[in-house]
Every structure is written in C-alpha cells, then in structure tokens.
Amino acid sequence: MEKRKRFLVDVGIEDLPYPIIVPSKLEKEGQHTVANISVKTRIMQEFEPIWIDKFINILHKHRKKTKVIREIDEILKDLVEDLKTSSAEIMFLYPYFVEKTTPVSKEKCLVKYTCSFAAKMSIAEENISNFFRIEIPVITTYPASSKDKPGGLFGQLSKVILTIQPAKDIYIEDIVELVEEHALVPIYSYHSEEDQTYLIKKIHSVEKTSVEMVDEIKNDSDVTAQTAKEIGVKLNSDWNEIKSSIL
C-alpha cells in the first residue's frame, strides 16, 4: 500500500472571545476584561481536522489560572507540543480601562485603551518572543497652526502606538502615564467646565507636535533607564516600535 504523503498546512482562528484577567496596578486581583484571541500555526496535515478542538482544550486547561495573560507562554508551549507544530503565534487583543483624574475638578473618570499581548515560537528558535502593544490617544499641536498669532495654535487627536518586549508583569497605568507626560494634553472621558477651559487654554498657548512628542519619549534618558526598570520592560533604542498617527 502506498504511504500517504505528509505535508505542512497553515491554520488559524481569529477573534475568539475569551474572558481574561490583566495585571493591574490598582486592582489586586487584576482587571477583568474580554479578549479576542487569534492563533496562527503550521501543523502536519493529519492534525488539521482536530486542531481547533485541541486549542480549545488548552484554553480550558488554563482557564482557572489567576491571570490567563500570564499563562500565554504555557498556552503556546502546550499548543506546539500537542500539535507537533513547527511554528505558532497567539495574540490576545483586549480593552483595558485606566482611572484618571481630571486636571482642575479632580473628578475620576475611566478611559479605554486598546492593548494586545502576543507570543511567537518556532522549532528553529527555543525562546518564546513576547510583545505587548498599546494604543494611547492624546492631543498634540496641529502642525499647520502658528504660535506667532494670538490663539493661532490648534490641537489634533493623535494616537501613540507603543510596542515593547515585557521582561515581567507590566502595568498599563505606568505606560499610559509615561506617554501622557510627553503629550500636549491627555484624553479624558469626562471633564467639567473648569477642566474644559483649562485644557482649551493650554491647547491654544502651548506647542507640542506629535513628532516632538515621539522624539521626547524615545530620547528621554530618564525614560530609557529608570522607567524601564520601574515598569519592567526591556527597551532598545527605539522601544521596538513607537509611532504616532493622526486620528
């Protein structure tokens, strides 16, 4: 009997909703949220009909762990081992809410940030690569406005996209605070009249473009040395990736 030929196939799943707990600086038990999980892997043909069942079983196995996001390496290892895969990648995309205090009224409000945590592994490389990505909306100066005219400066909504390699648990609150220190104005989900007056005055009187903001975050020696230690990340000269786009 002729032996059946074996070959590799690429399989994957996108946006599988799954409840997770994310480490939080303010909440001891972590913040509960819902992630959309995406998986890409290369497997032998014989595993193709059953790979999704195996992946769901692996998630089920880790469901009772305190923080599933901390288990991403173990989930990936189990996936590689159970499916005898040559490479695998898993990503958790999730919202995270940070409580912020408005500048004048000192009211508390929640702001949502879009985060993702991903892990990659292949048989060619023994180490697992982890990447954390966060999108932080801020206000920067519209580049075509002029500070030479009274009230000639205008603001624009920008989005800072920061990608880092975590060395240990990271606290999103610290990263948001770090970025917003270099923005013209942070984003709030609520502000009083007094807050609004203060923020508008600052936008029209202080200049800080998105390019200047990104350069400050990259080049601030205190950020790359001290803050890296504080928030528990490994930074290279360009933070892996940091950029700003206009919304």
Keywords:
6 helices; nine-stranded antiparallel β-sheet; 9 strands; Urate Oxidase; 247 residues
Verbal overview:
With 247 residues, the protein is α+β, with helices and mostly antiparallel strands. The protein has a single domain, classed as Urate Oxidase (Roll), CATH 3.10.270. 27% of the residues lie in helices and 40% in strands. The protein contains six helices and nine strands; from the N terminus they run ββααββββαβαααββ. Strands 1, 2, 3, 4, 5, 6, 7, 8 and 9 form a nine-stranded antiparallel beta sheet that branches. α1 packs antiparallel against α2. The longest helix is centred in the C-terminal third of the chain and has 13 residues. 26% of the residues are buried. About 6% of the residues have low confidence.
CATH class: Alpha Beta
Taking all Cα atoms into account, the compactness measure Rg is: 22 Å
Strand content: 35-45%
* Largest beta-sheet details: 9 strands, antiparallel
CATH topology: Urate Oxidase
CATH-defined architecture: Roll
Shape: elongated
pLDDT averaged over residues: 81
CATH superfamily: Urate Oxidase
Task: Give the termini separation.
Answer: 62 Å
Count the DSSP helices: 6
Q: Runs with pLDDT <50, length 5+?
A: 225-240
For the record, the count of structural domains works out to 1
Range of helix content: 25-40%
- Give the total of beta strands: 9
Order of helices and strands: EEHHEEEEHEHHHEE
Q: What class, by secondary structure content?
A: alpha+beta
Would you summarize the structure shown here?
27% of the residues lie in helices and 40% in strands.
Tell me the layout of helices and strands:
Blueprint: E1 8-22, E2 31-44, H1 51-62, H2 72-83, E3 87-101, E4 108-122, E5 125-141, E6 155-166, H3 172-180, E7 185-186, H4 193-205, H5 210-219, H6 221-231, E8 233-234, E9 241-246
Antiparallel strand pairs: 1-2, 2-3, 3-4, 4-5, 5-6, 5-7, 6-8, 6-9
